[in-house]
Amino acid sequence: MNPYAELIATLAKIGYMKPASGTWGSAAAVPLFWALHETLGVPGVLIGTVIAFVAGLWATQKMTANSENEDPSEIVIDELVGMWIALIPVSIGSAMAGMPSTTLWPAWPTAFLAFRLFDIWKPGPIGWADRRGDALGVMLDDVIAGVFAAVVVLVFAGLYHGVIQ
Fold first, then answer.
1. Long-range CB contacts (within 8 A, 24+) of 42-49
2. What is the pLDDT of residues 78-87, one digit of tens each?
3. How far is CA 31 from the centre of its chain?
4. Do 117 and 95 touch, CB atoms closer than 8 A?
5. Are the C-beta atoms of 142 and 76 separated by less than 8 Å?
6. What global pTM score does this model have?
7. Could you write out the DSSP letters of every residue in 44-68?
8. Among 146, 123, 1, 21, which residue's Cα sits nearest to residue 71?
9. 87-101 as b/e, with b when 16 or more CB fall inside 10 Å?
10. What's the pLDDT at 165?
């Protein structure tokens, strides 16, 4: 096994944590996203997400080559990418408002919970991507779940700021 692929795919072996390795991977993605946002802003978040996707696809291909299991539970780089996509509205929203991202605290747990819901439930296109049975499917189902979760974050933000406040 390629040790670099393993480090990337498992998020420095966080993917070996049990139970619920996907939840551990998603949780680990949150402070990494915050650090990326705080140091490099929205452009860094967007570029970092693309880099994580490409690196994750490569690492997943390496980890699953010659294996019957096309989506081992220890691979959690896909959760990082999906979680980062779910949090992109937080990065953009805090930049647009000129305020620290931590002040948008309701958005953080909303993104996390919505992403985990869609990643576990796998409705529609998320399930389709998951059933591909290849490394791209491993990554793509979480990308789509992240997009769905980002939409939930935007809807909740709109309701909160447009109706409640």
1. 42/91, 42/92, 42/95, 45/84, 45/87, 45/88, 45/91, 46/88, 48/84, 49/81, 49/84, 49/85, 49/88
2. 999 999 999 9
3. 12
4. no
5. no
6. 0.96
7. HHHHHHHHHHHHHHHHHHHHHTT-S
8. 21
9. bbbbbbbbeeeeeeb
10. 61
Q: Looking at this protein, which amino acid is placed at residue 125?
A: P
Tell me how far apart the terminal alpha carbons of the chain are, to the nearest angstrom: 53
Q: How far is CA 100 from the centre of its chain?
A: 21
- Round to whole Å and give the CA distance between 17 and 33: 20
Q: Any idea what DSSP says for residue 160?
A: I
Average pLDDT per block of 10 residues along the chain, 165 residues long: 96 97 98 97 98 98 92 97 98 95 91 98 97 96 98 93 73
Distance CA 146, CA 114 (A): 8
Among 87, 84, 73, 69, smallest CA distance to 153 is for 87
Tell the burial category of 11 from Cβ atoms under 10 Å away from its Cβ (0-12, 13-18, 19+): buried
**DSSP secondary structure code for residue 123 in this structure:** -
Residues 6+ apart with CB under 8 A from 81: 49, 52, 53, 56, 139, 142, 143, 146
Residue 31 phi/psi, 5-degree rounding, is -65, -30
